[in-house]
């Protein structure tokens, strides 16, 4: 996706209220459960029409190299998807001919370190979290993906929609054979 | 180890031992990765003096460095004192490479420029001139692609590539502005023998419609002649399997557009092709300008480099033992392409191939399982087969190589294993045959 948008929002630096924080934390947990259950029908409903889902690739560089490896959307990203592209990925599963997804991979998403901050846009919240995603497949294939997420969630009526998500994975060489997973 | 019985090119048979034997793997490191020209870097990845890029030749860690005079050198990434790795960054720019262990410092030309306590502790007796970084014996460039070779006396890179240059130029020399590899390196570990992905991409059009049926249904936007989702039909006129080029191969469709069949919005790319096709025909001739440029083409340079102009992924496989590889992928562009097309190519390459790519999800699983099923006591004694369309190849007007019709055939795989066997049997380059079957390069020369 050619993107002019960035994930950055002017933030107020202020924490959200206890109620708002609770609601969004529960939303993250619910989302994680949907992903564990491969309940993509409901998961897609959480995604805003103007979604940006971004996972940059991280190279190993010396500290003196000040290249912005995270925020620059023109660099290589494993995911740099809008809603249409996310749906395209999901449609592969729905064809019933994605043989490598059958038997299914078993997923557990653990979401921690949730912080909710207000942004300058009313009804939009910046949400920090960490994830530990465990995958197990076939008999003894397993791997762990661990990293940080920075989200923007938008309040829509009485629920929230994911507007932007940046996923910062800690791998240089991915120690497994694919990323058939949403984080 | 004698490998004469492990591969039979005439009947299309390989022993499964070649995917699992530790002994054969050590022999491959010596006779294939220690002997062949191996892809190091594209010149676009190290444009400035002092720019460096780390890669592997076989299992050897190598730094490739752009010199002050613009030439490119490559060295083992290992301190000549105690062997430590002297560079730990994937790429960057450096005036010197200083070892973390004792502080020995090497200049970009490999020379040992500084040693702490040289006078006080070595009493000035250290001969620094003999302790520079160990160079890769030969480094050479072909139109932006930089290769290295450990062998003392290899054929020239031009001779090594042979008539494969006919196909290389469809990317490297189609447009006057040249080419680049873009994007950071996508690296992934796969529990596969290194030959299996090479074999898969070099000639296996058979798996596309079946293994990737789900991905094709999800992202295909143009017809791809010669292939169908679900392998319900195949069109032998739609493409060519080209081999007999010194162990290199091309698998190509002939329509001039299908490289962009998996792009969600192919129109800007098709417009670019249409607009520029006359000058490409002028540069490369009608056969390549009309039938190959823009087509879906899989190009394989023996042993471990593969790239697909159109889909625009470029990949090397670094072996890590008989049952594991590191797969490194970049996106490829022509420098004359507008920035929006280049950006769309990088994004689409990541969507289709690479770590989170829809197609690679399918391949990784199959290649790992094929490797696993060659490790057992019983399975290691069994064979596997690449015997589709035996003895149905020949010359084709306007193209070099021994050619089988269609994208669905196992013609190219047989030549890949033939080359593997030729190298594994030979003690040195003198024992490795050179062949450019049905050469046409002379009559339709690349650089007019």
UniProtKB/TrEMBL annotation, chain A:
* Keywords for the protein's UniProt record, in alphabetical order: Dioxygenase, Oxidoreductase
Question: Which InterPro entries does the UniProt record give?
Answer: NTF2-like_dom_sf (IPR032710), Rng_hydr_dOase-bsu (IPR000391)
Q: Name one GO biological process term.
A: 3-phenylpropionate catabolic process
Region spans: Disordered: 1-20
* A Gene Ontology molecular function term of the record: dioxygenase activity
Q: State if Cytoplasm is listed as a keyword.
A: no
Q: Does the keyword Translocase apply?
A: no
Q: Which family does it belong to?
A: Belongs to the bacterial ring-hydroxylating dioxygenase beta subunit family.
Q: Please identify the protein, giving its name as recorded.
A: 3-phenylpropionate/cinnamic acid dioxygenase subunit beta
**Organism, per UniProt?**
Sphingobium terrigena
From TrEMBL, chain B:
Q: Which residue intervals define the domain Rieske in the entry?
A: 38-148
Show the InterPro entries listed in the entry: ARHD_Rieske_2Fe_2S, RHO_NdoB-like_C, Rieske_2Fe-2S, Rieske_2Fe-2S_sf, Ring_hydroxy_dOase_asu_C_dom, Rng_hydr_dOase-A
The protein's UniProt keywords, in alphabetical order, are: 2Fe-2S, Aromatic hydrocarbons catabolism, Dioxygenase, Iron, Iron-sulfur, Metal-binding, NAD, Oxidoreductase
Q: Which organism is it from?
A: Sphingobium terrigena
The UniProt entry's sequence similarity note says: Belongs to the bacterial ring-hydroxylating dioxygenase alpha subunit family.
A Pfam family per the record: Rieske
Database matches in PANTHER family: 3-PHENYLPROPIONATE_CINNAMIC ACID DIOXYGENASE SUBUNIT ALPHA, CHOLINE MONOOXYGENASE, CHLOROPLASTIC
**Any coiled-coil ranges, and where?**
none
Q: Name one GO molecular function term.
A: iron ion binding
Descriptive protein name: Aromatic ring-hydroxylating dioxygenase subunit alpha
